[in-house]
Write a sequence for this structure.
C-alpha cells in the first residue's frame, strides 16, 4: 500500500511500517524552544528527569524571539536563564534577540526533507514546507527530547489538499490556506497530516509554501507537508545545505482519510475576522473598514517575498495618517537581504516602523493594541487578546491586502486599486 | 547694576516682555511646548481639569504644541497603547498639526530636526532632557506635566530667571575623544547637583568647533549636573543647521551673552589631553578616565538615545568596529534617534554593517534608556551605554550596572566584550 508523506517520513525514521494510529518512536533531528517556552522545558528536564544536560548540543536550539529585545525585567531574567543553560551545554545554536523568529531561523539552518523537527511552539508545522516532519509540542515533551533525543508519535491520518490552477493577481498562498480553513474549520484536520499538493503548490516559491505549512495548526493539523522538489533544493543551496536535499513525495496510491480539491483560479483575497482564524470572508466584505494599525511580518508572512511585495506596493506612497504600519522581518538574513534590495528603505520612507527581526506584534509581548482598535495583520492568529488586548480586533490577510490597506487607512481590495 | 545680559537673560527679557535679570520672577510667553507618550497623558488630564468650567476647551495655540510618541513605540504594552489612543484623540480635538506617531523618533532629536526649535526661543518640554535644544541657542527646559497643562491652557509659565555658569572649554580634542567625554568630565567635576537651577552656558573654542550633533550631546546632559538649561551661543554652524529646515532663516547676531555679563561662576577647561571618560554605576557624576575601568566585562552595549543616537554617532561607532563582529556573549543594541537618522545610516550602509556584526538594530525609540521598553537588563548584567543616565534600575533590573560613554568607547567595548579604550583598537 502506498504511503503519504507523513507515513513515509515516520516509517523511515522509526524503522517500521508506520500506519496511521501506530505509536512510533523516532529520533529527533532538531529540537528547539524559545523565550516563551524554553525556561519551562529546562525546568521540566531538571524536575522530572534530574538532568540539565542535552542529548546532543548540535541538535538543540534556543532562540530569543518572542519578547525581543526584552521588554521587562522578568523576560531579561528568563533570557539570562536560557543563556546560562546554553553555555553549560556548549550549544552553538543559541540565537539572540534580533536574530529572528525561531521558525524562520530553523527553516534557514536546520529543516530538510525527511527530518523530524520538534519545537516548543505550535507553528513548528512550518517546516513541512521543506518536507520535514515538523510539529509543536509542550514544554514537558520538549524537555524530554532535549534530554533523550527521541520522542513518540502517533502516526497521523493524512488529509490531501489538491490545489490546481493559477492564483489570480494579488491572491497568495495565504488565501489558499484561509480558504482551506474556511472550508474545513479550525478543527477540520485535528491531528492529521495536511498534505498540500497540485500544480498551484508546485508553482509556488518556498516562501509561499511556508505560509500554508505554518498555518496547518490553525486547522488542527499535526503537520503541514509539501513534497520536496527543485525549489526546495535551491532553498537549501541558498543556505549552504544543498547536501541535505532529498526527493520526497507521497506515493501515487497513498491513502488519505480525506481530500479537498481547490481550483486556485477561483480564489480571492480573504480576511479572517475576529476572533477565530476560520471566520473567513472575501476582502470585499470588509472593504472600507477603518484600521488603526497594519502589521506586516511574523513567521507566516515576514519573508523576503512578503517584504518585496509590500515595498513594491508602498513605493512612493505614504501610510495613511490615521494608521500605523509596523513591519518585522522574520530573520536577520531576511532583513539584510531586504535592506540590500532597498525594501526596508522604501518601507521606512512610506512611514513604516521597521522593528528588528522577531515575533514582535504577533503575540502581544512587545507590541500591543489599545481598546477598540482594529488591526490588520499578516500573522496566523486572531484570537481574542492575542495582540495584547482583548478589547481590540484582529483581522488577518495576505501581504498585498495589508500593504494597500495601510495606504488607505482602511481595508482595501488590492484588485480594485492596484 | 550693569545692563549687560547673559543670553539667558536676553531670552527671558523677550519672553517676559520686559528687561529682566537673574533672580527675577517672570511670567514668560512660551514659544514651543513639547510632550510625549509618557508625560503627555497627565498633561492632557491636567489641561481639561483647568478648563473644566470653560465652554471652549481649546489649547492656547495648537501650532506651538508638538506631541510625539517615543518612549514606548510601537506600543509595548496595553497601558502604552491606551496612552497613545488618548493622545491621538487630543491631537485631533485640538487640531495639533505637529504630531509624530510611533515611527518618527525620540522627541529631542525630532524637535530640532523638524525645525521646531529656533535660536532665542523659550521652549518647554515635559521631559528632563529638553535642555538638549540649548545646543541651538534656545532656552529649553524640562517641566512637569502639571506645568505643561497650564502651558497648554494659557501659553505662559512662571520662571525664576536662572543665574548662569559659564563653562569655557578650550583646546583640541584628542583622537577618539568627543563631546560626550567633555560633558562627562564637566559633570564629574561639578557633581550631580553642582549646577542646580543654573543656566549652563558652554563656550570656548572646543565647543565652538563642534558640529550640531556633538553640541546636542553636551546640552542634553546639562540636567545631569542639575542645570536648568544647557545653552550654546548660536553661530554660523547653528545658522546653517536651521537654514536647512527653515529656508531663509537669518540669525540675530545679538543673540549672545554680552561682554561683562554677570555669571555666578566661570569654569575653565583645557581638554587637549583629556582621555575618554566613563560614568560608572550608579551616578552620572561618578566619572573616571576610561583607563581606570578598562577590562570590565560587559553583557550589553546600547548605542543610541537622544544623547548619542545620531548618524554622526553611529558613524563613529561603525568606523571603530570596521568589519569586526560583536564579541561573543555580548548584545549590541543600536537604536537610531530618529527615522531621518536611521535612513541616513541605512543609506550609508551602517545598518547593514551593524547587523552583519551581529547587532540588533531597533526602530527609532528611547529603548531601554528609561527602563520602560525594549532591551532591558537582568540582575547582575553590565551594560555600557551612550545614553545620559545610569541610575540604579534605570535600564531594567535594580541589580544591573550601567556605564556611560561616548559611541567610540561603546563600539570598542562591543567588539572586545569588555570596557575598552577606543584609542587602543
Amino acid at each position: 500500500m502506498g504511503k503519504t508523506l507523513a507515513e513515509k517520513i515516520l516509517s523511515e525514521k522509526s524503522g517500521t511500517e508506520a500506519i496511521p494510529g501506530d505509536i512510533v518512536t523516532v529520533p529527533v533531528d532538531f529540537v528547539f524552544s524559545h523565550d516563551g517556552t524554553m525556561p519551562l522545558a529546562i525546568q521540566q528536564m531538571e524536575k522530572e528527569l534530574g538532568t540539565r544536560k542535552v542529548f546532543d548540543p548540535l541538535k538543540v536550539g534556543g532562540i530569543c524571539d518572542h519578547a525581543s529585545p526584552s521588554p521587562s525585567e522578568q523576560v531579561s531574567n528568563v533570557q539570562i536563564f536560557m543563556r546560562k543553560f546554553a553555555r553549560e551545554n556548549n550549544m552553538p545554536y543559541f540565537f539572540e534577540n534580533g536574530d529572528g523568529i525561531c521558525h524562520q531561523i530553523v527553516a534557514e539552518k536546520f529543516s530538510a526533507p525527511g527530518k523530524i523537527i520538534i519545537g516548543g511552539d505550535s507553528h513548528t508545522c512550518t517546516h513541512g514546507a521543506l518536507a520535514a516532519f515538523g510539529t509543536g509540542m509542550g514544554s514537558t515533551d520538549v524537555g524530554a527530547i532535549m534530554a533523550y533525543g527521541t520522542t513518540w508519535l502517533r502516526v497521523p491520518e493524512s488529509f490531501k489538499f489538491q490545489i490546481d490552477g493559477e492564483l489570480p493577481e494579488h491572491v497568495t498562498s495565504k488565501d489558499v490556506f484561509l480558504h482551506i480553513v474556511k472550508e474545513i474549520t479550525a478543527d477540520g484536520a485535528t491531528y492529521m497530516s495536511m498534505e498540500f499538493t497540485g500544480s498551484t503548490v508546485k508553482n509556488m516559491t518556498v516562501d509561499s509554501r511556508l505560509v500554508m505549512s505554518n498555518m496547518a495548526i490553525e486547522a488542527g493539523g499535526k503537520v503541514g507537508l509539501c513534497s520536496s522538489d527543485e525549489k526546495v533544493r535551491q532553498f537549501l543551496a541558498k543556505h549552504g545545505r544543498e547536501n541535505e536535499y532529498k526527493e520526497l513525495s507521497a506515493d501515487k496510491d497513498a491513502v488519505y482519510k480525506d481530500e479537498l480539491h481547490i481550483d486556485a483560479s477561483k480564489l480571492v483575497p480573504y480576511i479572517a475576522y475576529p476572533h477565530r482564524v476560520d471566520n473567513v470572508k472575501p476582502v470585499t466584505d470588509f472593504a472600507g473598514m477603518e484600521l488603526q494599525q497594519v502589521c506586516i511580518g511574523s513567521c507566516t508572512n515576514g519573508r523576503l517575498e512578503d517584504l518585496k511585495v509590500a515595498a513594491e506596493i508602498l513605493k512612493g506612497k505614504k501610510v495613511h495618517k490615521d494608521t500605523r504600519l509596523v513591519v518585522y522581518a522574520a530573520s536577520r538574513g531576511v532583513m539584510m537581504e531586504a535592506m540590500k534590495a532597498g525594501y526596508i528603505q522604501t518601507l521606512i520612507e512610506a512611514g513604516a516602523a521597521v522593528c528588528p527581526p522577531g515575533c514582535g506584534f504577533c503575540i502581544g509581548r512587545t507590541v500591543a493594541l489599545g481598546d477598540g482598535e482594529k488591526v490588520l495583520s499578516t500573522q496566523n492568529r486572531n484570537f481574542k487578546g492575542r495582540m495584547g488586548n482583548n478589547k481590540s480586533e484582529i483581522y488577518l490577510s495576505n501581504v498585498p491586502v495589508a500593504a494597500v490597506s495601510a495606504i488607505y487607512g482602511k481595508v482595501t481590495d488590492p484588485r480594485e486599486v492596484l | 547694576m550693569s545692563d549687560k545680559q547673559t543670553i539667558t537673560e536676553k531670552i527671558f527679557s523677550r519672553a517676559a516682555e520686559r528687561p529682566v535679570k537673574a533672580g527675577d520672577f517672570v511670567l514668560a510667553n512660551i514659544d514651543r511646548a513639547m510632550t510625549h507618550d509618557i508625560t503627555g497623558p497627565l498633561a492632557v488630564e491636567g489641561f481639561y481639569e483647568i478648563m473644566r468650567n470653560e465652554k471652549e476647551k481649546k489649547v492656547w495655540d495648537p501650532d506651538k504644541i508638538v506631541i510625539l510618541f517615543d518612549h514606548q513605540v510601537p506600543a509595548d504594552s496595553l497601558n502604552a497603547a491606551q496612552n497613545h489612543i488618548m493622545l491621538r484623540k487630543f491631537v485631533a480635538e485640538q487640531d495639533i498639526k505637529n504630531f509624530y506617531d510611533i515611527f518618527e523618533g525620540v522627541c529631542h532629536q525630532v524637535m530640532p530636526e523638524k525645525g521646531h526649535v529656533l535660536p532665542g526661543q523659550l521652549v518647554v518640554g515635559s521631559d528632563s532632557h529638553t535642555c538638549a535644544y540649548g545646543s541651538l541657542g534656545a532656552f529649553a527646559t524640562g517641566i512637569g506635566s502639571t506645568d505643561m497643562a497650564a502651558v497648554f491652557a494659557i501659553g505662559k509659565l512662571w520662571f525664576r530667571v536662572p543665574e548662569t555658569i559659564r563653562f569655557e572649554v578650550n583646546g583640541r580634542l584628542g583622537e577618539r575623544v568627543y563631546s560626550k567625554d567633555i560633558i562627562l568630565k564637566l559633570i564629574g567635576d561639578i557633581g550631580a547637583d553642582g549646577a542646580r537651577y543654573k543656566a549652563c552656558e558652554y563656550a570656548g573654542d572646543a565647543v565652538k568647533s563642534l558640529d550640531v550633533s556633538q553640541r546636542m550631546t553636551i546640552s542634553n546632559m546639562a540636567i545631569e549636573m542639575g542645570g536648568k538649561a544647557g545653552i550654546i551661543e548660536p553661530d554660523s554652524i547653528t545658522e546653517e543647521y536651521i537654514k536647512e529646515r527653515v529656508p531663509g532663516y537669518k540669525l540675530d547676531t545679538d543673540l549672545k551673552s554680552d561682554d561683562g555679563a554677570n555669571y555666578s561662576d566661570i569654569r575653565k577647561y583645557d581638554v587637549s589631553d583629556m582621555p575618554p571618560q566613563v560614568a560608572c554605576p550608579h551616578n552620572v557624576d561618578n566619572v573616571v578616565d576610561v583607563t581606570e575601568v578598562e577590562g570590565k566585562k560587559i553583557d550589553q552595549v546600547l548605542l543610541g538615545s537622544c544623547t548619542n543616537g545620531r548618524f554622526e554617532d553611529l558613524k563613529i561607532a561603525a568606523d571603530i568596529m570596521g568589519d569586526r563582529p560583536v564579541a561573543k556573549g555580548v548584545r549590541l543594541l543600536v537604536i537610531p534617534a530618529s527615522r531621518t537618522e536611521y535612513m541616513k545610516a541605512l543609506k550609508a550602509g551602517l545598518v547593514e554593517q551593524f547587523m552583519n556584526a551581529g547587532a540588533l538594530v531597533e526602530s527609532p525609540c528611547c529603548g531601554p534608556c528609561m527602563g520602560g521598553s525594549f532591551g532591558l537588563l537582568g540582575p547582575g548584567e553590565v551594560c555600557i551605554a551612550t545614553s545620559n543616565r545610569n541610575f540604579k534600575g534605570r535600564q531594567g533590573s535594580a541589580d544591573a550596572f550601567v556605564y556611560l560613554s561616548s559611541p567610540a568607547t561603546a563600539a570598542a567595548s562591543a567588539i572586545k566584550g569588555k570596557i575598552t579604550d577606543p584609542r587602543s583598537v
Remarks:
- The longest strand of chain B covers residues 164-170.
- Chain B touches chain A at residues 73-78, 80-82, 84-85, 101-103, 329, 331, 333, 339, 342-343, 346-347, 351-352, 355-356, 358-363, 367-368, 373-381, 396-397 (CB under 8 Å).
- The mean pLDDT of chain B is 97.
